[in-house]
Amino acid sequence: MFRRPLASLVALLVASLACAQSKAYIALGDSLGWGYQPDNVNPSAGDKGYVRFTADWLASQQGTRPVLTNLSIPGETSASFFNTSEIGSILNTNYPLFFRKSQSQTFLDRVASNQAAGRATETVTLDLGGNDLLDLLDATFLARPFVEQQALADAAIEGARLNARQALASVRTRLPLAKLIVVGYYNPFAAFPGSAEDLIAAYSIPRLNSMLLIEAKRARAAYAHCFDAFVGNELAYTWIGEDDIHCRDAGYAAMGAATTARIARPLPVITP
Questions:
Q1: Average pLDDT over residues 88-105
Q2: Does the residue 250 lie in any domain?
Q3: pTM above the 0.85 mark?
Q4: How would DSSP label each residue in 9-65?
Q5: Reported confidence tier of residue 184, pLDDT bands at 50, 70, 90
Q6: Residue 38: left if φ>0, alpha if ψ -120 to 50, beta else—which one?
Q7: Does pLDDT of 12 surpass 50?
Q8: Of 32, 41, 167, 183, which has the fewest beta carbons less than 10 angstroms from its beta carbon?
Q9: Can you tell me the distance from the alpha carbon of 145 to that of 221, in angstroms, rounded to the nearest whole number?
Q10: 65 in a domain, yes or no?
Q11: What DSSP designation does 120 have?
């Protein structure tokens, strides 16, 4: 007389497992997407930072956690997204140590493997372009007249625009109906108002974010605005007091809250 309840329980567990494995979330980006913090640089699959916050939130909404693949690479620029020049991939265990493909190509491969496994890649987040600006910040750059710094920052943003457009087009072409969220950047240097770093960051980061917003709309994606949450909270939300621009746990939670709040709102209407 115990066969039917046991069979029903097994069927329920199998159905639950199948449901859990039917949806996927892929994160693309740089060190913020990977969840980098200077006090922990151990290689991992990147189930942390705002990506983990987002995956957990999706679980709360869907009843099951999507299968997460975080392909974000610390140090990735909008250009290296399409090649293998950024060695930060050694921190992301989703990539092989040798003969790895670009983040762009690996994304396409992972979408295909999800599909082969019967999983729909329903959510994609992307943060890209911040390192295009950060790579400018050295002593030589900061010694230039501010007008020259502005011109170099503008050029970097324009280069990031073209690359971000290509990246978003690739995602949208492969996943025309997915929830695609472009995550914006914050200004950690505002912790030190008037510093040379803050002056150029205050000029360039809002312009980078405006570009990302425009390109998100172009790709029928949504934009998660993170900038305001960090204003006045830079020392608490980032490691900038220890000379590192990355988020602390509180900062990643703020980025996750901005990302999930944007997912919770109506997203751009996309027709097949």
A1: 97
A2: yes
A3: yes
A4: HHHHHHHHHHHHTSEEEEEEESHHHHT-BTTB---B----HHHHHHHHHHHHHHSSP
A5: very high
A6: alpha
A7: no
A8: 41
A9: 37
A10: yes
A11: E
